[in-house]
Design a protein that fits this description.
Blueprint: H1 2-28, H2 36-40
Length: 49
């Protein structure tokens, strides 16, 4: 029973940490351009050298 008393707060803390990381990535703009990375792989870059 004491194991649950230790594991439940740890699980809740890890969940809150993951949620905070998700909101931080949304605020940082990680999900603003979802199609840009898929399109950039198709564009050929010319060497200027």
């Amino acid at each position: 029973m004491t194991g649950l008393a230790i594991l439940i707060p740890i699980a809740l803390g890890m969940g809150l940490l993951g949620l905070a990381a998700f909101f931080w990535s949304m605020k940082d703009g990680q999900y603003d351009d979802m199609d840009g990375a898929a399109n950039r792989i198709l564009i050929e870059e010319e060497d200027e050298a």
